[in-house]
Automatic annotation (TrEMBL):
Belongs to the peptidase A1 family. This is Eukaryotic aspartyl protease family protein. It holds the Pfam family TAXi_C. Keywords: Hydrolase, Protease, Secreted, Signal. Transmembrane segments: none annotated. Its main location: secreted. It is found in: Secreted, Extracellular space. Residues 1-22 form the signal peptide.
Length: 418
């Protein structure tokens, strides 16, 4: 009997640990100064915790291996290794050896989209600790940030506590792809993101491998739309012929207060140079629109707002429409302002309510949280962080689909509920 009980509990443990390791859940925090989102991961031996900014369009994982950092489990990837992408180049360092200083090492491009420069680092592998599990051989870039001086440095414009970037793009080196390719984890190549609107209400979540059945988010029905591949790279550095590794969707038109905005609809398609279209980015705090889309949005939004007796006030940069907060009503989805709909393939709509369209710039003023991207942006519509908060998004790279919940506030839920 005793041995049966033991066997039973062993089985239970085996089943539990299987279901725990099947997905990874990382907490997401919002930095109030930069409005960027970051998570914490453990890397190396002894384990060192890094806050890394979440960049869904980021091709790699990179962190700052400054002069005080060392790890006994770090292995630099040599230039002639099969793991070293072609055309990467080599870096060298005469010692003392440590992460960030090794000889004959495969160079890593350290990309921070908030800086007008690309930095060089080393490609290496090390152990990663996430969700109470240990993952070996995680490939990442590391750079000694103190080596760079002057205006542009690798960590520029990131939150003060963040020491690198966690990339989730459609690349071999992104975190979801590496975890799904690792033989010990067998995860589907997908991830879900739920960005919190503020830290005061709790943390958001990044689910690698999809939303676990035990999660309270599992119950939300997601509307699925195709992810579009832009055949032309939108990266700061690429090889001719590369497709973009960022996530594009096919927005057909945009509505304000139920009426279609009037602008040249070709701006919403991707042309034969890869310009135009709509992508999703966590590195932009507010959605960025081509000037001619932006100006019609502002004009029509102001008109529809005035129909609701909402009073316009002086502009607060960088916004193009600001209102007297006290003249705006409340709903369960935030301020009661005209809705903005992204009309997608098949007539499906992604509705943006007040909670995602409006920004409280001070106690008296609420502004429309979209910004002007100028007349010649590469991508016409970049959906930014503020518009993604409290929405559950699942990027499924197996079926190449994006699932979205629309505002969780409609269901009296938030990303910070978990
Ligand atoms: C870093 O750690 C490795 C392995 O523990 C050791 O061989 C190396 O000397 C250390 N490097 C420095 C600069 O302390
Ligand atoms: C670095 O590598 C080169 C070529 O592999 C070798 O000739 C050189 O001695 C190495 N330097 C150090 C400091 O290990």
């Amino acid at each position: 009997m005793a041995s049966f009980a033991t066997l039973f509990s062993l089985l239970t443990i085996a089943i539990l640990s299987f279901s725990c390791s099947s997905q990874f859940i990382l907490p997401i925090e919002k930095d109030p100064l930069t409005n960027l989102f970051y998570t914490s991961v453990g890397i190396g031996t002894p384990q060192h915790n890094f806050n890394l900014v979440i960049d869904i369009g980021g091709p790699t994982i990179w962190y700052d291996c400054n002069k005080n950092y060392n790890s006994s489990t770090y292995n630099p990837i040599s230039c002639d290794s099969k793991l070293c992408p072609k055309f990467s180049g080599c870096t060298g360092c005469s010692g003392p050896f440590k992460p960030g200083c090794s000889n004959n090492t495969c160079a890593a491009n350290i990309i921070n989209p908030l800086v007008n420069a690309i930095f060089v680092g080393d490609t290496g592998n090390d152990v990663l600790f996430i969700s109470h599990s240990k993952v070996s051989n995680l490939l990442s870039g590391c750079t000694e940030s103190e080596v760079f001086t002057g205006e542009d440095v690798p960590l520029k414009n990131l939150p003060k506590t963040s020491k690198g970037i966690l990339g989730l793009a459609r690349t071999k080196l992104s975190l979801p792809k590496q975890l799904s390719s690792s033989s010990s984890h067998k995860l589907p190549n997908k991830f879900a993101l739920c960005l919190p609107s503020s830290n005061k209400k709790g943390l958001g979540s990044l689910f690698i491998g999809g939303i676990p059945q035990q999660s309270s988010f599992f119950k939300f029905q997601l509307t699925k739309i195709p992810l579009v591949i832009n055949p032309f790279s939108t990266a700061p550095i690429f090889t001719k012929g590369d497709a973009s590794y960022e996530y594009f969707i096919d927005v057909k038109s945009i509505k304000v207060g139920g009426e279609i905005l009037n602008f040249k609809s070709s701006l919403l398609s991707i042309d034969n140079k890869g310009n135009g279209g709509t992508k999703i980015s966590t590195m932009k705090s507010f959605s960025v629109l081509h000037s001619s889309i932006y100006s019609t949005l502002v004009r029509d939004f102001v008109k529809k707002a005035s129909d609701k007796k909402i009073k316009k006030v002086a502009l607060v940069a960088p916004f193009g429409a600001c209102f007297d907060f006290s003249t705006i009503g409340r709903t369960n989805t935030g301020l009661d302002v005209p809705t903005i709909d992204l009309v997608l393939q098949g007539g499906v709509e992604w509705t943006i309510y007040g909670g995602n369209s409006m920004v409280l710039v001070n106690k008296k003023v609420a502004s429309l949280g979209f910004v002007d991207g100028g007349k010649k942006p590469t991508t016409s519509v970049v959906i930014g962080g503020h518009q993604l908060e409290d929405n559950l998004l699942e990027f499924d790279l197996v079926s190449s689909k994006l699932g979205f919940s629309s505002s969780l506030l409609l269901h009296n839920a938030r990303c910070s509920n978990s």
